[in-house]
Amino acid sequence: MLSQESLQQIDREVAKYPPEQKQSAVMAALRIAQVEKGWLANETIEFVANYLGMPPIAAYEVASFYNMYDLQPVGRHKITVCTNLPCALSGGVHAAEYLKEKLGIDFNETTPDGLFTLKEGECMGACGDAPVLLHNNHRMCSWMTKERIDQLLAELGGK
Amino acid sequence: MLEIEIDGKQLAVEDGSTVMDAATQAGVYIPHFCYHKKLSIAASCRMCLVQVEKAPKPLPACATPVTAGMKVWTRSEAAIKAQKGVMEFLLINHPLDCPICDQGGECQLQDIAVGYGGVTSRYQEEKRVVFNKNLGPLVSTDMTRCINCTRCVRFTTEIAGEMELGQAFRGEHAEIMPFIEKTVDSELSGNIIDLCPVGALTSKPFRFSARTWEMSRRRAVSPHDSLGANLIVQTKHDVVMRVLPYENEELNECWLSDKDRFSYEGLNSDERLTTPQIKQGGEWKAVDWQTALEFVANGLAGVARDHGGEAIGALASPHATVEELFLLQKLTRGLGSGNVDFRLRQSDFRADAARAGAPWLGMKVAEVGELNRLLVIGSFLRKDNPLLAQRVRQAARRGLHVSVVGPTADDWLLPVRQRALVAPSAMVDSLGQIVVALAAEKGAEVDALLRDRLPAQAGDEARAIAASLASGRKVAVWLSNLAVQDRRAAELQQLANEIARLCGGRAGVIGEAANSVGGYLAAALPSAGGLDARGMLEQARKAYVVLGAEPDLDFANPALTRAALGTAQLVVALSAFDAESLREVADVMLPVAPFAETSGTFVNCEGRAQSFVAVARPQGDTRPAWKVLRVLGNLLALPGFDYQDSEAVRDEALAGDIATRLDNRVGEIAPFAVVPATCERVTDVPIHFADPLVRRAPALARSRDAAAPVARASAATLAALGVEAGARVRLAQEGGRVDLAIVADDGVAAGCVRVPAAHPATAGLGAMSGAISVERI
Fold first, then answer.
1. B428 membership: H or E segment, kind and range
2. pLDDT value of position A158
3. What are φ and ψ of residue B376, in 5° steps?
4. SS3 B216
5. Which of B202, B246, B378, B399 sits most deeply, having the most CB atoms within 10 A of its CB?
6. B311: DSSP letter
7. Alpha-carbon distance A40 to nearest alpha carbon in chain B (angstroms)
């Protein structure tokens, strides 16, 4: 189900907790699984749950609670735009509108070429850099004016 | 102790109590949804907000610990305002569909909304819709009604032992669900219906069939397992519509197993026998009671006259009441026969001559929670006795160490510290090893009766179990159904007693059926020189009286039973159901009332006699069996059959102190020569096929526990047998053969094949223990 590297990474997370509390590593394990698989299918969640010796539904509760876990397939580049208040006051909503227009999709949609998915995100803790967006959960992009968005899309689309 | 003042009442409560506990103690009602005394605290509904002195905001009573000198107001202006506010929020998304909701009339939300809800809603926006989930054949869902109290989630996790439900997503999108495509398969699943404070989880079999206020309710006692769960049976126009738990903290607490809760459907089964019938020239004819009873009386008197009384044998179900069993044995003995038995699934009766009393649990059910070491022998605990298993599960959370000896390693959803996975024939040796190890550990002498029969040495498993038991403060050793039904049950009992003696604990027998103890007390046992259940079938009698049992499903050896009954001159069946297997062998069938339609008494595993009265009128011409037996006694002119009511029968049967008649001790037992077999049968009685009533409950028959039987063996055993997992095999025993699929299950001891009994698919087989052959087909 998961590659040897992913399992090793999960094992390293598991080792941080007492052996009888393996399930404490569920968030890390789901993250690692998502990085490898691109998204979390039910089978993936079940595999992770069994790997950690916890009920599948308990892992599903976690996976469905946090919005950075994707329970549906996403495009190669997932762009999450913050529209919480500080961002919104500094142009976050405009950034989102511009992305929608450029990509031709709404929130929670994927471009037909499977390249981009747009998501609406919650505060990323970088209000001073607003507007901010997150690329594939791991890369924070700050001060996303129209120009910088164009730059980012060109960079990602060119790959 | 802490001093607290609630609504001006002064009281002292235990340290660690919550405000809710204190309020309960003070007799003050605080509205709540998510709080439940048997579950962990969630504090998610916020309905129990109360005002606390010096606290700036209202606090949830269920999650606020009492501090010394605390002052609480539950009905103050601030408290009521907070509670009304919560109520308004809870009603925002709740549909106004009470008229079509099954919970209507017994709904906590409805009740509390009357007290705290507004007359109109200020909420104008769209309401939330949550799609329904398929939780299986027993629990129906209307998830839009859910208020996310998570009682059901906590129940499956904490009481049933396996988290089958969870709360996925969050905030407004939060919803209760099982893991995708899964159902709730716990044998305790029906309790989430009672727990649900709204109409989100309701009973599927009962759905839309009656309103709570239309039904009359009476107390009854479960006729199934040996716990004797207390029931509230609800009837409408003399038809049993629903069964709910009657809270009894000492037995079932506030729970019921699904078997207890949904078996009532069998009462209304099409297969009910409603008129007396006589077989004439191979044809069944409905007759009136007078004709049928005279036929039976003349028939039995004729057999007794021509062949002697001992040509008659009486076989009764352990699910029959004390009154029925007592009158049956009295009738049989009156006819000059000592052949009476109710232990239909047992095969070892060597202990009968050496018993000190009736085998019982050896302790009160309520004391299970105090145990800290437990050895369970030969058990399918979770399915044999779901609520006892639940108590063990709770005790295990508090530090009870459970050890198991037996041929299966089913998941009981509780931690098993030590396990000796051994074939049935090796259980005696396994227990012997534990005795040896325990005697060494304690430096004690082994009982002289056993000394010569023990193995020379103890293995690692036995030593580990012995060490666990030896370190216990409160220890119990339980023999369960598989052990009691084993060919060497008497020796197992002896050894279990010895283990308990050596570690200062108590030996007990869990008991198979509602009246497994009551049968002993009612003397439904063979007289000295009389034949036991097995003997009566091996040495075929001329006439049999069969009470409440089916030849192919309720006996230790269906092949033997059918053969013996089939050749008898007269078979009288007293049955609530018109079973095909009875039609084949019986000559007369008398319709007798199941538990809901008769008064009676069951004595549960702890020796508690619980009497009940009929909750519904007997269907058709059905009559209570105790009355039928009384009339038969009168027709046969036997003395002592002039009882006015069933209470008089009970008082005679259970005269004296029951406690003094309970004793698990057995004296000397003749040894049993084990014939080695290449492959041994391990037999479980599936929970929803165990007795004639439950196997006719359609909703239970669709549950996972009622899946068609398969044979099971470990991968190694399969390889040794040369059979592939998933293949169909022919299983053969002395007396019969059947074809079944076989699957790999490493929870079955080596050299064993697990084949369920009590199912039509396996009724062609012979004894429940002993050799079995497996062939590919």
1. helix B427-442
2. 57
3. -110, 130
4. strand
5. B378
6. G
7. 13
Q: Which residues of A touch B157 (CB under 8 A)?
A: 55
Contact A57 B165 (CB under 8 A): yes
Do residue A42 and residue B180 have CB atoms under 8 angstroms apart? yes
Cβ neighbours, 10 Å, residue B212: 16
Residues 161..220 of B with a Cβ closer than 8 Å to A: which?
162-170, 177-180, 182
Question: How far is Cα B59 from Cα B62, in angstroms, rounded to an integer?
Answer: 9
CB contact under 8 A, A55 and B164: yes
pLDDT at B279 over 90: yes
User: One-letter amino acid identity for B695?
Assistant: R
Claim to verify: residue A145 and residue A108 sit in the same structural domain = yes
User: Given CB atoms, is A91 within the 8 Å cutoff of chain B?
Assistant: no
Residues in B closer than 8 angstroms to A55, CB to CB, are 157, 162-164, 166, 179
Q: Which domain holds residue A116?
A: 77-156
Q: Which of B162, B168, B182 minimises the CB distance to A64?
A: B168
Q: How confident is the model at residue A159 (pLDDT cuts 50, 70, 90)?
A: very low
Render pLDDT for B652-696 as a digit per residue (tens, 0 to 9).
999 999 999 999 999 999 888 888 888 999 999 999 999 999 999
Q: What is the CATH number of the domain that holds A140?
A: 3.40.30.10
Is A141 annotated as belonging to a binding site? no
Check CB contact under 8 Å for A46 and B167. Answer: no
In a domain, residue A145? The reply is yes
Per-residue pLDDT of B358-403, as tens digits, reads 999 999 999 999 999 999 999 999 999 999 999 999 999 999 999 9
ipTM of this predicted structure = 0.90
Looking at domain B1-77, which of 3.90.420.10, 3.40.50.2300, 3.10.20.740, 1.10.3720.10 is its CATH number? Answer: 3.10.20.740
Q: Which amino acid type is present at position B465?
A: I
The two beta strands, B600-603 and B609-612, are antiparallel
What would the mean pLDDT of B516-541 be, rounded to a whole number?
96
Residue B486 has a pLDDT of: 95
Distance CA B468, CA A92 (A): 64
Question: Tell me, what's the pLDDT at B565?
Answer: 97
**Is residue A42 domain-shared with residue A9, that is, in the same domain?**
yes
The residue in chain A having the minimum alpha-carbon distance to the alpha carbon of residue B182 is A57
Instruction: State which of A45, A65, A85 marks the end of a domain.
Output: A65
The answer to whether B158 faces chain A, any CB pair under 8 Å, is no
Nearest residue in chain B measured CA to CA from A42: B180
pLDDT at B521 over 60: yes
- Residue A69 banded pLDDT, cuts 50, 70, 90: very high
Domain count of the fold of chain A: 2
